Structures are given as structure tokens and as C-alpha cells.
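Predict the 3D structure for this chain.
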Amino acid sequence: MNEPATSPAQLPPAAQPERAASVLPPLSLRSKLVLSYLAVALGAIVVLAIAVIAAVYNYYYTSQIRQLQDAAQTYARGIEDFYTYQLGGHWGPFSLRFPVPALLVIVDQNGHQLLCNPPAGFNSQFCSETAIAQSAAQALQGNEVDGHLESSGFKGLYVSVPLYDVNGNHQLIGALLIAQPEASPQRFLSNVTQAILLAGLLIGVAVVLFSLLLARRLTRPLESLTAAVERMKEGDYSQRVDPPPAQDELGRLAQTFNAMADRIEADVAELRRQDQIRRDMIANIAHDLATPLTAIQGFSEALADEVIQEPSARKDTAQLIAREVQRLRRLVADIQHMTLLESGRARLDLAPLDLAVLVDETLAVIEPECTQAGITLQNTIDPRTPPVLADSDRITQVLLNLIDNARRHTPAGGTITVGARRLGRMLEVWIRDTGVGIDPIDLPHIFERFYRADRARSGGRGGSGLGLTIVKAIVTAHGGTVAAESTPGKGTCIRFTLPLAPNQEEQGSPVKSRPGRERRDKSGKLLPPTWGYNT
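Done. Predicted structure below.
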């Protein structure tokens, strides 16, 4: 059975505004600007009108109060003289023969009413009102009091002042209250309101016209910017906008957009290049994993099938398997180490470090291999070089990576030199060799993650392609920088910086290496660290 359709009139009340809101088109930026300017102008006019009305009321009030205060002081001086010279310093029956205001009340020092002149249209009972007695009695405290008075249909302003004996004792003898109906500025305010409304209408028209012109000028560059963004959304990163002639916020926005577009276009190109590097890296890592795994599989099957019978041959085969496993472990350790460093999760044990001593210890570790290859090692760091604030193990790994990398690319008879110099608050360290050098095409990329090239230092001479990336990550974690210079056929120089230790920057005396950083065998010979250093 079909249900009857629900008409708009039958919709719930809560659903009708939502439907109406969905039908209304959204306001454009130009409309919002015009409405906002108009709202600001009208708001300013309303605030101005309120301020004018408040100022007029305040002016009328203060003017009447000031007039009443002057009149009250005049009446008070006359009554004080009358009390002293006519009444002999004692209150008695008396009357006033000079003009009085709408309401005049005199009380003695005890608050008893001595004289009351009610306003026109009120009888003598008006003088017995509590509000009048309280207002007059307030001045008996010795202070002048003013304010609004409302009693039995009378509305006005009053001033109450104390009365004193004019003789030398200046004793309080009573109080005087005068009051007048409050003047209303309604006619004046009516004229002012009409003028403000007329001015507001003219200002509103002018604001609408001005805001339309200004909004058009503001939104035109934004429309071109929006069109360029839409095209960039479709993948066209070559879009640029023409900055407006005025160097204001819109001009800076256009320039910033163009700079952002340049950066995005460069980043997209870099991402594509990195993606290609990643693909090449996966292929290289797969090759590096496949070679030892194939060897391990073949040797393992030979042992399992008892193809190798001789005990000595079986032992040699087991050692080959162990070496291949160690090679895989070094590759995995390099990847894990690099990931920790680049993610910032690696913990650095920072302490003052004597770099000259650390270089001597590092060269002692790698010296046997260099001597066998006919390579000379030199440490030219001045023993008085100030200490750096660094992690001894990490910097040792940096030195081993760079020196071993230089050894593997330096022919017999070559030289590897380690030096350092102070640069402000940093210490620059360099490792220079006389090896084959690096091709200029590969030089800008040798510190990139997973970059491998046969002509680069991270090439296929036994390294994983991660050593120089690890070096850069360690140096960066210490707050330093690393760079490379190379000339093919003449050699390479790798430079990196480390921060000087605090409170040691102005001192020239070195500190000793921290104990417990090196490993030695039973005969005292220095052993290499437990982690690898392949590049």
C-alpha cells in the first residue's frame, strides 16, 4: 500500500528552516563585504546616536544640578546671616521675603522641619513626605548632596546643603533643600534624531556604492587565484597568477601563491625522483638480500644432503653461512639505525668530547687495513682543540664510516687526512683523501637515502647505500651540517660540523675522552666497535 506524499506544509517545524536554508544560495564574498561595510556604518551611526542622546541628557542634568548648587549656596549664605543676625543664633518663627525656587525646605540640626515652601499645585501636606525629609536630612552629615527627587507626583532634581553658624565656632545649625522640576530635552533630541537619520541614510547609500567598487577591486584577484587553484587541483602545476599592481596583502598573496606553486612543482618533481630512487633501492636491496640468501640456501642444502662429507669442509661451509648471515644482519641494522635517526627517536648521550683523541682511537682501529692497502693515515687535529658536545659512540661511527669509505676508494700510495678547525661556536671536521673522487653528477645525491651509483661513494663496492645517509642523520641530530667536495681523479673531502661544549667555547684546553668507550682484547689491542660501518 502506497503512503501519501508529504507536502511542505506537513513537514515538521524543525525541518522547514533547514529546507529553506538549503534553497537559499550562498552569499558571495563581494556581497559579504558590502553587507559588512554597511553593517559597520549603520552600527557606527547607531552608536553615535546613542552617544549623542546620552551626552545631551548628561548635559541637561549637569547644567540643572550646577544651577541648583549655585542657588543653594546663595540661599544658604542668606539664611545663615539671617539666623545669626536676625534670630540671634536661635531658631524661631520666621518667613522669607525673597523669591524661592519650586521647592525649598529648611530643617534644624535635629532634622525638624522649620520651613517648607511646596511647589505650585501642591498643598502643605506635600512637605511631610518621607522622601523630602530624608533628602534634606542627608546634608546634616556635613556634605552637599544632589540627585533625583520623586514624591507624590513631583519629579525633579534637588540639592541639599548644610547650614553653619557664621560666628567663630562654625557649628552645624541645619540643612537647606531646594528642588526644581527636571527640564526635558525631548524637542532638542527629536531634531537631533531626525538629523542623524537623514545623515545615516546618505552615509548608507555612499557606503554601499563605495563598498561595491572596493569589493570588486578586492575580489577580482581572488577570482583569478581561485581559477588557478582549480586548475592546479586538476594536476596542472604550471599555473601562475599575475600579482596586482598594489603591493598590499593581495599582492603578497599572489606572490606567495606563485612561490608555493614553484615549491609544489619542484616537490612533485622531487617526489617522482624519490619514487624512482625508492624503486631502484628496492631492486638493490632485493639483490643484496638475494645473494646471501641464495648462498645460505645452497650451503644449507649441501650440508643437509650430506654432499659435503669432510669435517673441515663442513666447518668451512658453516663459516661461510655465518658470514652471509652477518652480512644480512649488518644490512638490516643499517636500515633500522637510519630509521631511528631520521625519526628523532635515537637517544644521544651528549658529553664534552676530545675529538683529537677520538680520531686517534678511530685511526688505530682501521690502521691495519690501511697499512695492508698501502694507504697512509694522518691526524692533523691540534690537541688543544676545544671539546665538542657530542655522543662518543655516534661520532665514532661517523668517523669509521667516512674513513673506511675513503679507504675503499683510495689506491695504494694514497693518503687519508683528518683535520679540524673552529668556526664560531662550531667545530668543522674534515676527512680528505687522494682517491678516485666522485662524479659531479652523483656528488649532490650521495647523502640521500638509498641513493646508489657505481661512481658514488655509496656504490657497489660492498656497501648498502646507507652509510653516508647515516652519517648525515647523526651529524644533523647533533645540530651540525655535512657537505662533500670532490674532483674526479684527485680525491674527495667530506666536511661536517659539531657544536662546541658549553663553558668550553672560550677555553683552549682539551678534555679527556670519557672512559669506557673503547674495547680491547686481553693483550690490550684496540678492537673495533660492535656495529658495522659500511656505506
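The CA atoms of residues 198 and 232 lie 50 Å apart.
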